[in-house]
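Thread: Newbie trying to understand structure tokens

Hi all, I'm a second-year student working on a class project, and my supervisor (Dr. K.) asked me to get a predicted structure for one chain before our next meeting. I've only ever worked with sequences, so writing a 3D structure as a token string is new to me. If someone could post the tokens and maybe explain what I'm looking at, I'd be very grateful. Here's the chain:
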Amino acid sequence: MFFTFTNQGAGQNAGQLGVLHVEGSEDSKDFCIAFNEQWVPLPTHLDSTPKYPLVEAKPSTLCQVPENPSKIQDTAVAIQRGNCTLFSKALYSQNAHAREVLIVSNDSLFTPVANSSEEYAQVTIPMAVISHDDWIKYKDKDFGGNVKVQMYAPPTDLLSNIDGNLAVLWLLAVGTVAIGAYWAGITNKKIMRSVLRGNTNTDGDDSNANREGESAEENSIEVTPLLVIVFVLLVCCTLLLLYYFYKYLVYVVIVGFALASCNGLYECLHPLVLWFPFGDCKVPPNQIPLLKKEPQIRTVLLIPFCLAIAIWWGIERNKSYAWILQDILGISLCISLIRIIRLQSLKVCTLLLVLLLIYDAFFVYITPLFSAGKSIMVEVATGGDSKESLPMVIKVPRLRKSVLSVCLRPYSILGFGDILVPGKLNYYQCRN
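---
Reply by user tm_fold:
Sure, no problem. This is what the structure looks like when written as tokens:
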């Protein structure tokens, strides 16, 4: 499992990634680029990399001789993707005495390849690809005057892809599974004791135990094979709806997550609040729906506290520190779900695991075959072109910074499904 996290955190193959360093009189910034060593290898250190002004080709796709070859002489020339081959773009640039070629992708990064080995041999200037989003960021940023760029490929090794946040993520996931399964096991034992004792006991301790067991049973959900099948079908439909209507439904998911995680946080903190030595007086008799049972003051005050955490996250969800709030809410929700969802038998657990395996394999590896090479699962998980992302993940930012950090995901993430499914399997063991 730890190596799975490593691969998720590493992102793309770092051996084909480099850095475009842009520096002006007022500011500088690094952008991620993709290259192919079969063309002309990029320098490996910034200090030894030559600087060139970056100019846009005219015509923009450079599928023909440039309008004014002298304007791209001794420059790094930016060329839109267009319909012609990369080889022809590079050859037109080279004949105009450009020093570097930067292909602007229509979408994400891709490795520039030629149609034959002879094409590689004919090109003598470096070529790299920048994503469309990064190109827009470059265009929108004010670097000041005398802007120069440098393209280079910092050396990497296996350890450069491993970050300390993977260990933190692993501990959070294992801790969530352990706590949720243990708590679920305790809850199940209370329910079983309540069933065995029945409601005929008059002894105070037994009555209290019965009430605890009845309360735990009321708050739990018994999962049957039919419910498992319906659940997986609903997940598939939801994923497809998110894929086609992401920019609308993502906000529905965000609101739903905030409400559900608020309840999960309350469920997790409720037993701890009962240990407080104050606030144990009860609410006076009333007809208010939520307060009819006359709960203790300390549990009532816990409700606005949990709501405040969820609202705080909802407002600040795109800030750099919001991952802390999201992890608190997400872990609480996972623990709560592991505790209240009860599996009837190992057969139900096995059915759930098999169906989810098929679901994962299909939407990650099979869907690219008939969806323009895009994985539906990956597109939904990353948010595509949207600035919003689905919050049903535990995320930890990268702790180790490097030059190639611009090419790696800023966070290592783990979906709730990778926590809940092992959690339910562990719960099944705990109940026995």
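A couple of things are worth pointing out once you decode it. The chain has a mean pLDDT of 84. The first helix runs from residue 2 to 10. Feel free to ask follow-ups in this thread.
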